[in-house]
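Project channel, design review

CF: Before we commit to the Sporosarcina oncorhynchi constructs, I'd like one complete example in the thread so the newer folks can see what an input/output pair looks like. Taking Glycosyltransferase.
RD: sounds good, go ahead.
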Amino acid sequence: MHKIAVFSNMYPSEKHPTFGIFVKNQVELLQSRGLDVDVRAIDNPSKGKVNALKKYFFWFVKSIGYMMKNKSQISLTHAHYAFPTGYLSLIGKRFFGLPYVVTVHGGDIDKMAAKNERIAKMTRKILQQASAVIVVGERLKRNVIEQFGVAEEHVHTMSMGVDTTIFQPISKEEVRHELHIPQTDKLILFVGNMIEAKGVLDLVDAFKIVKQSYTDASLHLIGSEKDERFMQTFAARVQLDDVHISHHAPMPQKEVAKWIAAADVFVLPSHHEGFGLVALEAMATGTTVVGSNVGGLSFLLNDGAGILVEAKDPESISNGIVQALTDISGDRQGKMVRKVSEHTYDVIADRLLTIYKTVSKGRQTDE
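CF: and here is what came back for Glycosyltransferase:
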């Protein structure tokens, strides 16, 4: 196998260290296994029509030029997100004979493909022309097969994996001392983008209910401010309610892992979720997860590995948080360990390499 070209419309930079961090982690995992991986990605999350057009245009032009120049050295391309990223891989196949793998993360199916029929048709073409389609959750697998007509034998369910050298059990007492968190606090934590679709306002309302029974409870939210108008709504809601809520800017994964380990409950009240990798990372630290019964979370937290609640329902979310605070049975810990073991980096790397070898054999045969 020669070079692997990875395309992504999300990738971290020094200025935006958490933007698409899961893609960077997978790239580094592949490189640690000895693969020659080149990345062509957008590392600027800035919005606005003009900014988006400029950054996508230059990214497409440079990526196509890269494939043209290096086509003889590239074994395959791997696109993260079906559209628009997968369109680059489709061009690579049509014009340069490069087979490709595409990873579907959720938003590219739930939101992007639902925007209009043109994007839906392009998404269908991208997925059907791929040598392999990786989906991060079981529900996405059904969608890709049933809605987009992809042959089941080409679809692989596989998360991005959890780095258990970073996300692992840590002494709650020690890490709270390091983070200056009172030992007696009931710490409830959220990590994710500060947007409505992540259920942030639902969590604030749920926390108000929890606070009535647990006066020592605190809610901490770690995440990027993606929408200025939403943040104004969030700030007004928190100020008006006068509750113990703190928002923190994005931080390195090692610091996030400490906060998760320090928490009593990790909550992910998303309205939709392809997989919910951060929930898996929380499970790896041993912290109980409360999550919406949507998408990949429905599978990740089932069978008692976590606590499933109804999305957009503050009362249901609050009940889940209270259950997590009161139910400390060791049964759940064992189930979390088993779930995490299915998604370790070693497991993911082995499966990904198997897919790559199969796809690249087709390239060698064509040559």
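RD: helpful, thanks. The chain has 15 helices and twelve strands.
CF: Residues 49-70 form the longest helix (22 residues).
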